[in-house]
Amino acid sequence: MKDRVIKKSIIIIIFFLIVTSICLAGDPDSTKSNEFKIYFYPFAFYTPETEIAIGAGGASYFRNKADSLNQPSKITLTGYYSFRKQYSFTLRPEFYFQQNAYRIFAEANVGDFADKFWGIGNDTPDIETADYMRQAYGVLLNSQRRFRQRYRAGFIVEVKNSVIGDRKENPFLETDSIPGSNGGMTVGLGVSLAYDSRNSIFFPVRGSFIEMQWTVYDKTLGSEFKYHRYLLNYRRYFRIKERQTLAFQAFGNFTSGTVPLYELPFIGGPLTMRGYFQGRYRDKHFVTSQLEYRAIIFWRVGLAVFAGLGDVSDKITDWKLGDFKHSIGAGLRYLVDTREKLTVRIDFALGKNSSGLYF
């Protein structure tokens, strides 16, 4: 009964986000008040997490001409089905108002994932029975207000529910000794502080972005797990030449308390430490840094070369630089829109005894 109520609440929130997104986007046929562009596209891709997948999506961005100093707002809606019998639908609206004084970002997702879990720690061995199935749905809201021109402060609301389906003989899920082995609800409230001097939110070539978040998950909010999460994200962009950029990122994800296994900080995925299966290594804390060289080589086609270093740990004092995992790779970029620098990318990366292809 409780699960039905939660599902209905999530559906209502997702519906609200869709309606709000459409209303805020304005009339796409109007050229007097809004500048509006929209793309629809089918796609097929391969990643270590999904293997071969096919899907479709839409992306739109718009800027009110009466408030031309705004950064472009955007809405993306995507869905896919993979050969591993996974599916996922995600809606991501991001809005800027009153000359960028307000930023609202939201994400609603529902999916059935063929996930993997190798246990907890930075040296867990490969096992053939790491697979398991997990159903999840949730909503994230991050609302911020600008102050002192380049700074933003705001609050975070996050609601997620996970259900562990077929455990597929995963030895770590056979007992209830690991938090989250039976799934569960997480509900969190948090605060965020950000500094942004980037020249573009889609394709920056200069400036910095710094964001700090602190989120509390507690049973008084409806969460089945009690823990804290601290995020630190630092990005710096250097223009080398007219069409060449060097990008640096340092990222940290730190937790304390009883964290469910699927919410533990992890290595891998399409954003950080590419070349590792997303979640190949999990633990209470995760730090990484990565450097990426980007260049437009001709017309709208670009090239990227990147390298990363990172690791997970149970305690912050346990990190040893010599034990850190490495990641190296290269990729291609294609500018879908030259004005707003909207891009499509494909990357191939190598990790320690692993590799990954990302689109």
Features:
359 residues, mainly beta, 16-stranded antiparallel beta sheet, globular
**What share of residues are in beta strands?**
over 45%
H and E order: HEEEEEEEEEEEEEEEE
Major sheet details: 16 strands, antiparallel
The secondary-structure class comes to: mainly beta
* Cross-sheet strand order for the largest sheet: 1-2-3-4-5-6-7-8-9-10-11-12-13-14-15-16
> Counting H and I runs of at least 4 residues, what is the number of helices?
1
Count of β-strands: 16
Low-confidence stretches: 4-33
Coarse morphology: globular
Rounded radius of gyration (Å):
21 Å
N- to C-terminal separation? 39 Å
Global mean pLDDT: 86
Instruction: Name the helicity range.
Output: under 10%
Can you give a write-up of this model?
There is one protein chain. The protein is mainly beta and 359 residues long. 7% of the residues lie in helices and 57% in strands. The chain is built from one helix and 16 strands. The protein is globular. Residues 4-33 have low confidence and may be disordered.
Compact summary:
The chain is mainly beta. The chain contains 1 helix and 16 strands.
Task: Please render the helix and strand layout as text.
Layout: H1 2-25, E1 34-47, E2 51-64, E3 73-82, E4 87-97, E5 102-116, E6 131-147, E7 151-164, E8 184-196, E9 207-217, E10 227-241, E11 244-257, E12 285-298, E13 301-313, E14 325-337, E15 342-351, E16 354-358
Antiparallel strand pairs: 1-2, 2-3, 3-4, 4-5, 5-6, 6-7, 7-8, 8-9, 9-10, 10-11, 11-12, 12-13, 13-14, 14-15, 15-16
